[in-house]
Design a protein that fits this description.
alpha/beta, UDP N-Acetylglucosamine Acyltransferase, domain 1, five-stranded parallel beta sheet, 19 strands, about 30% helix
Length: about 200
């Protein structure tokens, strides 16, 4: 027996959908209300801020810190791992799942967009959308003003340079940057040695 998917189920599973139903509207309103409270809190209210984030997001782990202001569509499609840090003005359009691993650093003014629209204008006018998940694996650093587009996976340990527009998957262990974002080089032991030398130099 075929059971008709709800609009919400279609959205999350990557099927075309029209986001004009009451269920998704109410979900977005709840997220906006939570975010308004979050973003207007006194900076000293860290426990209160983290409590709002835990209730808003689908999954959190130990040691996360998100600098306000923060924006998202729903919240429940976002999962963040241990020691996650996001700087100011993170925007996540989470129509599809957004999975963020452990020890991920995100610079200011970064945007993650899972939502996409038809190229054909007649279908856009009718409100059709489709969403594709975004995955950011462990120990990734994303530079400020980066945009990550629908369906992208960024591999573990990779660095994305500031101002990049990431339209395709980026493998693990590389430095990538640009619009569109491209691999510049692999990350090597020399990168560790060079920075370790700077630490030693300044600690003397």
């Amino acid at each position: 027996m075929n059971i008709e998917k709800s609009v919400k189920q279609k959205m999350i599973s990557g099927d075309p959908y029209q986001a004009n139903g009451r269920e998704l509207f109410d979900d977005r309103q709840r997220a906006k209300q939570a975010l308004q409270t979050l973003n207007l809190l006194d900076p000293s209210k860290i426990k209160e801020r983290n409590s709002i984030i835990k209730n808003l997001l689908g999954k959190t782990a130990k040691g996360f810190f998100i600098e306000p202001p923060f924006r998202c569509d729903y919240g429940y499609n976002i999962e963040v791992g241990n020691a996650f840090y996001a700087n100011y003005n993170l925007t996540i359009l989470d129509s599809a799942p957004v999975i963020i691993g452990n020890n991920v650093l995100i610079g200011p003014n970064v945007s993650l967009f899972t939502a996409s629209h038809p190229i054909d204008s007649s279908l856009r006018i009718k409100g059709w959308e489709i969403a594709k998940p975004i995955t950011i694996e462990d120990a990734v650093w994303i530079g400020g003003n980066t945009v990550i587009n629908p369906g992208v996976t960024i591999g573990a340990g990779t660095v994305i340079g500031s101002g990049s527009v990431v339209t395709k998957n980026i493998p693990a262990g590389v430095v990538a940057a640009g619009n569109p974002c491209r691999i510049i080089r692999k990350i090597t032991d020399q990168d560790k040695e060079d920075f370790s030398w700077q630490i030693k130099k300044t600690s003397k």
